[in-house]
Amino acid sequence: MTDAIVAEGLVKRYGSVVALNGLDLKVPEGTIMGLLGPNGAGKTTAVRVFTTLLDADEGSARVAGLDVRKQANELRKSIGLSGQYAAVDDNLTGFENLDMVGRLYHLGRVRSRERARELLARFDLEDAADRPVKGYSGGMRRRLDLAGALVAKPSVLFLDEPTTGLDPRSRLGMWDVIEELVKGGTTLLLTTQYLEEADRLADQIAVIDHGKVIAEGTADQLKDQVGGERLELSVATPAELGTARSTLADLAVGAMESDERQHHLTVPVAGGSAVLMEAIRRLDGESVKVLDIGLRRPTLDDVFLALTGHHAEGDDKK
Amino acid sequence: MKLLQALADGSVVAKRNLIKIKRVPDLLVFSTAAPIMFVLLFAYVFGGSIDIPGMDYREFLMAGIFAQTVLFGATITGSGLAEDITKGIIDRFRSLPMARSAVLVGRTTSDLVNNALVIVIMMVTGLIVGWRIRSSPLEALAGVALLLLFAYAFSWAMAWIGLLVRSPEVFNNASFIFIFPITYIANTFVQSERLPAVLRHIAEWNPVSAVTAAARELFGNTSPLSPPPDVWPLQHPVLASLGWVVIFLLIFVPLANYQYKRAVAR
């Protein structure tokens, strides 16, 4: 399989800030790569280099077989970008926005209009099509922006934090839309701060920190490194903590951790909600009074803690 | 072919900017309200104290008002570009296979159309307060064309400044520092011969004076009693204005394009 995106040793500095510090990446054609990292890790900078918006100081990158620097003009015909800040014009209607993008992709007058209507229908924006974007909700704006990236049916698509800032309902809607659109075999590079999002959408995940890929693999492989799911519970007394510990010992797939002062127990488990139900049943059988119990899945922060030993905090620089 | 494509791309961007005038009509209202107020102020308040030998002040005034109006209109180019680069829309444009020049060409073109609209409104205002065209229709048309051409060249300078400061608010303040002296240390509202020596020299060589004098000439608003000007630009104002247009374009088109590349590649 050929690679749709190949980056070798990309370096980009902004004064003393190093945004990319030797980034290497390969994305096979037709697959979805999730670029996972905190704010300031270099995700947006990488996307800007791949989409010809920014020249790297060192290293090289090829997208769809074309050099991002030397063949930028040619490349722009076959990529689509939807950024973190919806790149739509507030004063234009949804239709006018997409029609304009079509014209600038040189689809011609007739084809641009057809394509605009097609996409508006597909992204559930038909009713709002002829209203100025100013009155759109955040979710509608993102969908329109994504539609803009698809106007020319690009072979490689870049989505930079497509759900950041969206409410949970719009986020779920966006995920459906993205899943739908990559069925057609488009290569997709997606950046995100949410492990859950990368898990759901991406075939492969590259974890990026301080401008470098620090781990790569499928969601499962990464979770194995992090330690997977955990059962967390709190009880009222130290005695009950002891009972809980012994009762749940054989459900644990790793070492349990207990906090005597907070009466808090963490049990690494595998098997999801079935394990949670079983644990509750057993604790109930032993008459342990559980104050709080829950199944916790690893977050980006857990991945980071496991991989780097530091929390996934970052400044807000690109 | 490449040039045609660039022009087509530019016109798509221009259309986008013009839709804004339609959607936010306040913009046009306010960009004409101020010059209309100037006409009323000078025609009815200050005009009585300004004496132009051999002609009515209102006839003298209007060419100056036109020049001022199109210059102020040209500043929209700078604030518009500064606004665009603070938003995501420029990233969208830059990821498309469109001509690199289209954003600037489109912007300056739509501001030219805006200026053409405004100047028609100002001419009607002038006719209402007593201004008259005393030349042939063809000469009058040439006068309008020259004013617009001058404003178009000037808007490339504004584009450069707008991209340099990168913020619409800063641009609005910065452009005033530049645009007030160039508009008022000139023959726009008073005869330059009456200014004190230093200012008079500045006014005589000011490009705005040349275009104002050219407009007066082409609209036939000159006084037989005015002494013949003693500097070349005011003796040949049409030619001088065209010269300024060429100079402005030669300097500011490359500068604006250079600054655009710098401003967006971050």
TrEMBL record, chain A:
GO terms for molecular function: ATP binding. It is found in: Cell membrane. Keywords: Antibiotic resistance, ATP-binding, Cell membrane, Membrane, Nucleotide-binding, Translocase, Transport. The keyword Nucleotide-binding applies. PROSITE patterns: ABC_TRANSPORTER_1, ABC_TRANSPORTER_2. Its main location: membrane. This is ATP-binding cassette domain-containing protein.
